[in-house]
């Protein structure tokens, strides 16, 4: 059997190698998920080590939530892998390329307009992906997230948001792709350098404008009101020379009760963004059932989002928020952000360099049904998505390991700022609010967790007495 495979034409060997590796990765991921599901199913009581930091009710809620998510992930992953396999076996990619060619011909463009055909192909492919992914997204949001008390959206809001995301994505994706294809076409022998520089510039621009111009299209950002918290945040930023210019609160509660915080910006223009669900005194979810002042009518009314009563307060107090931000600012002070950008760009340059070597290999195109043409966009898809897949898996694992190391370092930075106790309690609160399950299979967590498990982080912070 092995000999017969190697006796096949090289393009067939490439095709079956890609397909085989894809299923190998899927089966490996399914095995890891199975190991973790056994943990969810069998660990029904709070382990003794967790007795002081998690009550049995929250433990059971988190167990059931993560079990539901794991089961959903199994079926959605199986569907995705099966769909991808059928697309390859049935020649879905060359078929869609042909449909895109027919569309461009009908609107007056011949086969020489490859970039135009590529943009039509890209639009059709993203439309197909959006429609096939929509039922899974709806089920995840309105069954799983709803069942466990996280979803705050109505179906109308969800669908409007999905349409808006698709339009914004196309407005960015299509011009960027057309320019990239043009650069590759006219770049000569060193096109890969120009293509890399272009993608670097695009990524820097997107990071710069995202929170100011793109994110506000979906969520409401308001400056953090003057008060003790804002004063303390500014003082902490100043103490480590973090060039903070603004602090925003984002209305994350209108779509989910999950919480988060991040910073963005380059050089001397840094901003901090806090989810309202992170702030104990700010979250609307803590105010359900309390008398509320009348609110002026806005575009986002209760018909689009729904605050649900909570039995207990969500979020962190001011001291804990400062500890969380101390951790986030530690990533900046320790150079983690810059290191991640450098790694990303080194990887991007390497991939474009290898792409330049491989793009002329006709057998790569023939392997996926392109016998008479070698479109640049298809070459990008074949090489970056299929040929590089083993490398991408290895890189992803290495970055996961590095991310965990960075998280420990950022925790240590917050501890050095004198915020170990507050970060300790904040991590426990955030784990409870987000129904994180604190028990993990070692192999599953090693492969998947970009953040260390809760117990490992608490141990690293030290044995601190809690109320």
UniProtKB/TrEMBL annotation:
Its EC number is 3.4.24.84. It is an enzyme of class 3 (hydrolase). It is a multi-pass membrane protein. GO terms for cellular component: endoplasmic reticulum membrane. Residues 224-463 form the Peptidase M48 domain. Zn(2+) binds at residues 327, 331, 407. The chain crosses the membrane at residues 14-32, 86-107, 119-144, 165-184, 190-211, 349-370, 376-402. Binds 1 zinc ion per subunit. Residues 286-314 are annotated as: Disordered. This is CAAX prenyl protease. It comes from Perca fluviatilis. The lineage of its organism: Eukaryota, Metazoa, Chordata, Craniata, Vertebrata.
């Amino acid at each position: 059997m092995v000999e017969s495979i190697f006796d096949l034409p090289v393009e067939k060997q490439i095709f079956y190698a890609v397909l085989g590796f894809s299923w190998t990765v899927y089966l490996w991921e399914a095995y890891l998920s199975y190991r973790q599901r056994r943990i969810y199913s069998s660990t029904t009581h709070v382990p003794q080590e967790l007795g002081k930091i998690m009550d049995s009710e929250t433990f059971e809620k988190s167990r059931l939530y993560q079990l539901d998510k794991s089961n959903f992930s199994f079926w959605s992953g199986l569907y995705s892998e099966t769909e991808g396999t059928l697309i390859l076996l049935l020649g879905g990619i060359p078929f869609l390329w042909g449909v895109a060619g027919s569309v461009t011909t009908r609107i007056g463009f011949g086969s020489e307009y490859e970039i135009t055909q590529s943009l039509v192909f890209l639009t059709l492919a993203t439309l197909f992906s959006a429609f096939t992914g929509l039922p899974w997204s709806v089920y995840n949001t309105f069954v799983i997230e709803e069942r466990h008390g996280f979803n705050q959206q109505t179906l109308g809001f969800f669908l409007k948001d999905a349409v808006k995301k698709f339009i914004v994505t196309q407005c960015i994706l299509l011009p960027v792709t057309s320019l990239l294809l043009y650069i590759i076409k006219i770049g000569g022998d060193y096109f890969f350098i120009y293509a890399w520089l272009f993608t670097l510039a695009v990524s820097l621009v997107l990071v710069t404008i995202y929170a100011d111009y793109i994110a506000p299209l979906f969520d409401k950002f308001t400056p953090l009101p003057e008060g003790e918290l804002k004063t303390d945040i500014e003082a902490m930023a100043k103490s480590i020379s973090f060039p903070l210019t603004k602090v925003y609160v984002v209305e994350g509660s209108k779509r989910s009760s999950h919480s988060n915080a991040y910073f963005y910006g380059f050089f001397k223009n840094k901003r901090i963004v806090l989810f309202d669900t992170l702030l104990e005194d700010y979250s609307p979810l803590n105010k359900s059932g309390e008398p509320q002042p009348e609110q002026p009518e806005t575009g986002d009314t209760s018909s689009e989002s729904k605050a649900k009563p909570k039995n207990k307060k969500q979020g962190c107090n001011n001291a804990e928020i400062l500890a969380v931000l101390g951790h986030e600012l530690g990533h900046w002070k320790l150079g983690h952000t810059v290191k991640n950008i450098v790694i990303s760009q080194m990887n991007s340059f390497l991939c474009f360099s290898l792409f330049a070597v491989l793009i002329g290999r006709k057998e790569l195109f023939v392997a996926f049904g392109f016998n008479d043409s070698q479109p640049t966009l298809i070459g990008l898809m074949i090489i970056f998505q299929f040929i590089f897949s083993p490398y991408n898996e290895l890189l992803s694992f290495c970055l996961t390991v590095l991310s965990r190391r960075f998280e420990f370092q950022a925790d240590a930075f917050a501890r050095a700022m004198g915020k170990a106790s507050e970060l300790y309690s904040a991590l426990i609160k955030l784990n409870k609010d987000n129904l994180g399950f604190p028990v993990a299979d070692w192999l599953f967590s090693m492969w998947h967790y970009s953040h260390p498990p809760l117990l490992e982080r608490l141990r690293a912070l030290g044995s601190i007495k809690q109320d």
